[in-house]
Structures are given as C-alpha cells and as structure tokens.
Amino acid sequence: MKNAIFLLSIATSSLVSFNLFAEQTFAQSNLQEQTQLQEKSFSEAQLAQMLAPIALYPDSLLTHVLIASTYPIEIVEAHRWLIKNDELNAEQAAESVEDFDWDASVKALVPFERILSRLSEDLTWTQQLGDAFLQDESRLLESIQVLRKQAEIAGNLEKMDNMDVSYEDSNIVIEPREKEIVYVPYYDTRMVYGTWHSVSYPPVYWRPHHSVYVSRYNPFYFHSGVHISFNYFFSAFHWHNRHVVVVNSHHSTHRYYEQRPRRLIVNGGYAKRWAHKPEHRKGVAYRTKHTSSKYHNKRAYVSESSPKKHQVVQHKIQRNSHKAQQVINQKTHKRLHNINNNISKKVTKPATKRYASMDKSKKYASQKVHRTNMSVKKVSPKKVTVKTYNKRAHKENSKSHTTITRKTKQSSNYKQKQRTTSTKRSHSKTAKTKNR
Fold first, then answer.
1. How far apart are CA 179 and CA 218, in angstroms?
2. Is a pLDDT exceeding 90 seen at residue 56?
3. Contacts of residue 375, Cβ cutoff 8 Å, sequence gap at least 6
4. Which is it for strands 163-168 and 171-176: parallel, antiparallel or unpaired?
5. Based on the structure, what is the number of domains in the chain?
6. What is the mean pLDDT of residues 302-308?
7. What's the domain range around 356?
C-alpha cells in the first residue's frame, strides 16, 4: 500500500508540473507573437509618413490605390504594358485592359499613368502601403482622416478647386466635382499639412515630372482631367465602420455615377466589404506570419468538444472527393471515347483512299503496258493501206450524206413557202368577193 501511494503521489506531481510547464510555454509563445506583431506593425508616425502624398486624393481614386498596393506585381505589369502601348490615350487603354486577368483596382489605375508610374517606380513604398492596409485597415483609414484634419486646420483644404469637400459625422469626404472626370491633385507634403509633428519620420515627398508651381497661396496643382467610364466607381470608404466597401457593377442596376453616388454604394444592399485575393499577389511574401496565415491557411479548424462538426466536415470531404472522382472518371471516359473515334476514322477513311489509289495506279499501269504491247505488234503494209482507204471512203460517204440532207431540207422549206403563199392568196380572194 505504501508503494502504491508513493507511486500515485509521484504521478500526480509529474502531471501538475507538466501542466504548469505547458501553460508557461503557451504564454511565452503568445507573448513572443504579440511582441513580433508590435515590432512589425507600423506606428502612427510611419503611417502618416507613407500616406502623406495620397491622403488628399478623391475617395474613389484613393480606394483603388490602396487595394492595388496589395498586388505589386500586377502594378509593375500594368506599368510596363503602358510603356509599350504609349500611343494609346486614357480611354483606349482602359478599354483594351478590360479582358486582362489583373485585379479591378489595377485596371482602374491604367488611365492614370502618373500614379501608376509612382507605384511601380517606388516599390518599397507601395509594398509597405499594401502591408499596412492588410495588417490593420481601420488604423490606416483613421490616419487618413487625421491627415485631412491637419490640412483643414492649416487652411489648405478649402483651396481645392476641382474637389467637393463634405463632412459625415466628423469624417472628411473628398469627391470629384465633375462626376465623369477625375482630377489628380499634386501638392507639397512638407507644406500642405502645416507643421509636421514627427521629425524622425518626415512625409514622403514626390518630385513633379515637369515644372509645377506650388505655393502657400496656391498649394494644389491639378493635372488634366481623366474621363472615366461607369465601371471605375466600384469601391468606396465606409468611414463610420472604417473599412472599404466594394460593389459589383455588373449586378447593380445603377449604370452611371450620377445615379450611383458614394452614399448609395456604401448604404446599398448590393455592396459588401472588400476582401483580399491572394491569387493576384502572385507569390509576394507578406510582412507578418499573422497575415500570411490569414490568407493562406485554408485548413478547416474543428474543436475536440464538437464531434458533430467533425462528422459534418468529414462528410463534406468525402462528398467532395466522390464528386471529384466522378468528374475525373467522366473526363477520362470522354477522352478515351474521343481517342477511339479518332483512331477509327484514321484507320477506315485514309485506308480506303490509299487502296483505291493503288488500284487505280495498277489499272493505269496495266493499260499502259497493254498499249505498249499493242504498239509493239508489227502490221503488214497492205492492211495499213486498206485502213487508210476505208477512212477516206468513210469521210466521202459522210460528206455526201450531209449534202443530201441539206438538199432535202431546202426542198421541204421551198414547198412549205409555196403552200403558205397559196393559202394567203385564196384568203385574199374570198375577202374581196365578200366586200363586193
């Protein structure tokens, strides 16, 4: 009994120590993950630094820039395509790109050549912007509103000529004044936001491609407007919930932007929250393990305390595998059937043609041989003279026969003419007697 009690005490103590060790390791792993996320997540100063050159863009254009930044390879492909096809204008380029397999946001940026070139040339900034957007969407939208409020406090937001600036629950909304034309503003980020707070993270400054004059009295320079189609407006900001909303233009009944404003996109029943598509990222690594597991971990998670869920998942897996096997069997059966048909056609039709051609060639060859044999035979000179004489006599007989037929035809025609003239004379005589 003493030994059994001693063994039980040892087992319980080992179990308790093992549980404590497991809890400690789990807590340490959670702390390490949190610290890694905090280290790799962007601070408020870093977000303001990268968002400074685009925070005052119109909302529709800004949503396309943020979504497209998550697909940097497609941005580079689109920019290279634009360089190759530089003879096309904005409308022609937008029409020719509609059937490409790029994301809709990248296609929407094709008419805006300057923005696409900025995103393609400064890939580190583009990738950081996309990672920040995927990492924490609400924080990024909050930092955009902070920058817009700084520009408002500096008194520069009122000087945007081609934009409508409105307010929704203390949120600043920027929209193009002309609904079918989008103007891209250029501004000096070191001046338009007033005094910049963080010295260690100055705002990103884009140098203009050509000479552009910007001052404190005129802080914005607008490039030539870009005429856009109705498919351009498919995304908007839901500022109250701090996320981007996407609408499918093919399912919506509102065709033009005058009938489909931003509020209707946000509050409409056909809108839904934007979701990242990893297939358009094309192998570009994510910034953190959390985001990579979020978009690449497709395994079904089932808890041990839910056997019903486990059974349901197993049933779905079996059903899907059965369907896949059926589809594979059907495809293989069709392929084999097509292969057999092709083989039978190839065997039957050309074979008959070949044999027929061979038979014809044999016939022709036999005829040639027979003719050659006939020509080889020797003929006596008397028979040749008889044949020539007969030919001449046949020709003379045919000539005499033709002359006789001609004479008979002429005589018959002459007789018919005489008869017709006699009948006419008789008719004329009878007519004269009646008149008398």
1. 24
2. yes
3. none
4. antiparallel
5. 2
6. 45
7. 306-381
